[in-house]
Amino acid sequence: MSDSKKLIEFKVPEPTLRRLPWYLAFAKLVLKQEQLFLSSTQIAKNISVDASIVAKDLSYVKISGKTRVGYDVNELVDVLESFLGFTRSHKAFLFGVGSLGGALMHDDGLEQFGLDIVAGFDVKYELTGTSINHIPIHHIDRFKELQNQTGINIGVLTVPVEKAQEVAEFMVAGGIQAIWNFTPYRIVVPDNIVVQNTSIYAHLAVMFNRLNALKELDENQ
Amino acid sequence: MSDSKKLIEFKVPEPTLRRLPWYLAFAKLVLKQEQLFLSSTQIAKNISVDASIVAKDLSYVKISGKTRVGYDVNELVDVLESFLGFTRSHKAFLFGVGSLGGALMHDDGLEQFGLDIVAGFDVKYELTGTSINHIPIHHIDRFKELQNQTGINIGVLTVPVEKAQEVAEFMVAGGIQAIWNFTPYRIVVPDNIVVQNTSIYAHLAVMFNRLNALKELDENQ
Q1: pLDDT for B105
Q2: Is residue B184 less than 8 Å (CB to CB) from chain A?
Q3: B28 and A199 in contact by Cβ < 8 A?
Q4: FRET partner for A76 with CA separation of 20 to 30 A, picked from A154, B73, B84, B115?
Q5: Distance of CA B7 to the CA centre of its chain
Q6: What are the percentages of helix, strand and coil residues in chain B, rounded to 5?
Q7: Which helix (H) or strand (E) holds B181?
Q8: Per-residue pLDDT of chain B (221 residues; tens, 9 = 90+)
Q9: How far is A185 from chain B (nearest CA, A)?
Q10: pTM exceeds cut of 0.95
Q11: Is A24–B184 a contact, with Cβ atoms under 8 angstroms apart?
């Protein structure tokens, strides 16, 4: 669902970055069960990923396991959380306080994973001065001014699809360097801008299709 | 971010199902601009996907373009929406009315893409009888009874990570056949159960990493 810029070679491959949070989730679970050590084989077995992939993924993270006992779980959790950027607070602006934008402003979970939405912007004057979950909503005209004041460089894009490209360009012109794009539109931005596409609705299409396919299989049996 | 079950061969590949919503979004945009025909080359150019991939993807959908003019945009939108399951209403239950679960209940956009969350379930007695965005919240104990009454077979999983596996098993035992898993935990379920993993927080990790990598590049120049 996402683009890595082809022109820049990143140290950590995107599939690795997407799997590391699974290992973190599992390590946290194990920690709650008061288990102190965890091997890559154990991780692999529990989350159905090849042990060699787990080991390779963890090689990007600065942690070393002990022979026979594996990784210290406390250390693994700490190192992964920090490596993934979840322990730092990254302030962000949200663009488009519609249904999905409002929903994301309601989700305090984002903050636990390092994303702190500090303001929402919208074109609707009736939203100006209101707030959702204590996050203020401003008219979009105030974005540049507030960006200058704060230096915030992450933008969450939740506008209607037909505005996605236009607003993305406006965000970039105003100083945004990373766009978390929740629209199903494939925005085009300069190469030095990070785009993370998260079209949750596209995932729905996969789920519906698989559910139907299984139903057809059942009916033909 | 998602699993296709390895034992079952599905007709439409998952990458195709994930790209089709992009084409739909673009076709809708074009329709608003009152353009009547659209070629796969035009789609390809605008959303940075190879033209051959666009043509191949669209070959799974029952639509044929006209030589030189391309696809009828109205037809393309209708056919894609219906193919992707967005025109049918799929009723679903949500499990775990925490921050993210509540946020998803706030998102009316899901309904436009065919998902209708009709009830939320939680273990917290204080939530029982309340509602979010007119969607009632029940105690989890009532799930089986309500599943029997309604036959609803889609479940959205938004419980805390340490409960993910347990609740997934409970959902399956109670008649759920497709799980939209928003937890970062890799749940293990029988092969005939559809799992769609959407860990939005994992996408954050990719975005943070790319942003840092670009910053480092900048500093080294």
Answers
A1: 95
A2: yes
A3: no
A4: A154
A5: 22
A6: 50, 20, 35
A7: strand B178-181
A8: 344 444 567 889 989 999 999 999 999 999 988 899 999 899 999 888 899 999 999 999 988 888 788 899 999 999 999 999 999 999 999 999 998 999 999 998 899 899 999 999 999 999 999 999 999 999 999 999 999 999 999 999 999 988 999 999 999 999 999 999 999 899 999 999 999 999 888 899 999 999 998 888 778 76
A9: 6
A10: no
A11: yes
Nearest to B208 among A103, A114, A214 (CB): A114
Tell me, what's the pLDDT at A11? 86
Tell me how far apart the alpha carbons of residues B49 and B23 are, in angstroms, rounded to a whole number. Answer: 10
- Spell out the residues 6+ positions from residue B25 whose beta carbon is closer than 8 angstroms to its own: A161, A183, A184, A185, A186
Instruction: Pick A1's closest partner by Cβ from B1, B26, B102.
Output: B1
Instruction: For Cα atoms B183, A199, B14, give the angle at the middle one, nearest 5 degrees.
Output: 85
A128-187 confidence digits (pLDDT tens): 999 999 999 999 999 999 999 999 999 999 999 889 999 999 999 999 999 999 998 999
> How far is Cα A42 from Cα A114, in angstroms, rounded to an integer?
27
Contact A186 B14 (CB under 8 A): no
For chain A, the helix, strand and coil percentages under 3-state DSSP, each to the nearest 5: 50, 20, 35
Looking at the predicted complex, does its ipTM rise above 0.90?
A: no
Strand A37-38 vs strand B131-132: parallel, antiparallel, or unpaired?
unpaired
Q: Exposed, middle or buried: residue B66 (CB in 10 Å: 0-12, 13-18, 19+)?
A: exposed
Interchain contact, B103 vs A104, CB within 8 Å = yes
Phi-psi region of A29 (alpha: psi -120 to 50; beta: other; left: phi over 0): alpha
Residue-by-residue DSSP string for A180-202: EE-SSS-----TTSEEEE--HHH
Interface of B with A in 101-160 (CB under 8 A): 102-104, 106-110, 113-115, 153-154
A45 reaches B (C-beta below 8 A): no
Cβ–Cβ gap A84/B209 under 8 Å? yes
